[in-house]
Amino acid sequence: MSTSNLAIRTVIFSMLGSAGLAAIKFAAGIFGNSYALIADGIESTVDIFSSFLILLGLNYAARPADENHPYGHGKAEPLITFLVVVFLVVSAFLIGWQSIQNIRTPHALPESWTLWVLAGIILWKEITFQIVMQRSKKLKSSSLKAEAWHHRSDAITSVAAFIGISIALFGGKGFEVADDYAALIACGFILYNCYGIFRPALGEVMDENNHDELMEEIRSVALTVSGVEGTEKCFIRKAGMKYHVDLHAKVLGNLSVTEGHNIAHQLKDTLRKEIPQLGHVLIHIEPFSK
């Protein structure tokens, strides 16, 4: 299975899970008198729309290079990640605003059975987070990382709701707002995670050259190619799930232009074979004297 197909299947899995959980949360929140659960349901609903955006982004980013996009369409992925962050920020503020309104309005205690619902939701969301995060690391996908943190944010919101409902039930009358304070605190966690999602995507758009492990791997593979005496500059740019490389390779200065050209092609082919996540590879030959 190709990397893009695996990423798309992962997002579809997330969407189906979020849709089912949103329905459960809304039902449990309404009938169980818990705004923290309703807030949780709102976040899951936002997750469905953001997952759909990620799905569109992955499909577009997987398009091959063309005349107008010689480096491919991978930059669409971090741009979609920015939209996902906007969705998360908006949902956090909406939940926070409604929580404040509920704190100012007296209401009944939540039902005790909502704790069982939340326990199941927390377990499922954490399992989903681990699955999606593992695949995001495997595929080097910033949008899948954002998708994974959706699930972790959802799990955190559910943990906060669990604690809030527990306090409300244990404290009894007068502690009803604990449920709403829990939803408010969860907003802070969501906003914190937004930064964690946004920062790597920004680095990708800005072509930050901070891929030290991959750089060392490229240099090591380069030295296995006959005629390559060493390497100098190595610049790496990430675009979607591919890495574009500019590498300066040192060769003996007494070689002909044709020999240097052939070494460059062999080096490029070897790098792309040994490191499949590489996309466009540009080799610059540097004359070298022993």
From TrEMBL:
Q: Where in the cell is it found?
A: Membrane
**One of the record's GO cellular component terms:** membrane
> Can you tell which superkingdom this protein's organism belongs to?
Bacteria
Q: Which UniProt keywords apply?
A: Membrane, Transmembrane, Transmembrane helix, Transport
Q: Where are the transmembrane segments?
A: 12-31, 37-58, 79-100, 112-133, 154-175, 181-198
Q: Does the keyword Transmembrane apply?
A: yes
Fetch the SUPFAM superfamilies from UniProt: Cation efflux protein cytoplasmic domain-like, Cation efflux protein transmembrane domain-like
The UniProt entry, under InterPro entries, shows:
Cation_efflux, Cation_efflux_CTD, Cation_efflux_CTD_sf, Cation_efflux_TM, Cation_efflux_TMD_sf, CDF_Transporter
Q: How does it sit in the membrane?
A: Multi-pass membrane protein
User: Which Gene3D superfamilies does the UniProt entry name for this protein?
Assistant: Cation efflux protein transmembrane domain (1.20.1510.10), Cation efflux protein, cytoplasmic domain (3.30.70.1350)
| Ranges where the Cation efflux protein transmembrane domain occurs | 11-202
Q: Which residues form the Cation efflux protein cytoplasmic domain?
A: 212-288
Q: Does the keyword Transport apply?
A: yes
Tell me the GO molecular function terms.
monoatomic cation transmembrane transporter activity
Q: Which family does it belong to?
A: Belongs to the cation diffusion facilitator (CDF) transporter (TC 2.A.4) family.
Q: What is this protein called?
A: Cation transporter
Origin species, per record, is Algoriphagus lacus
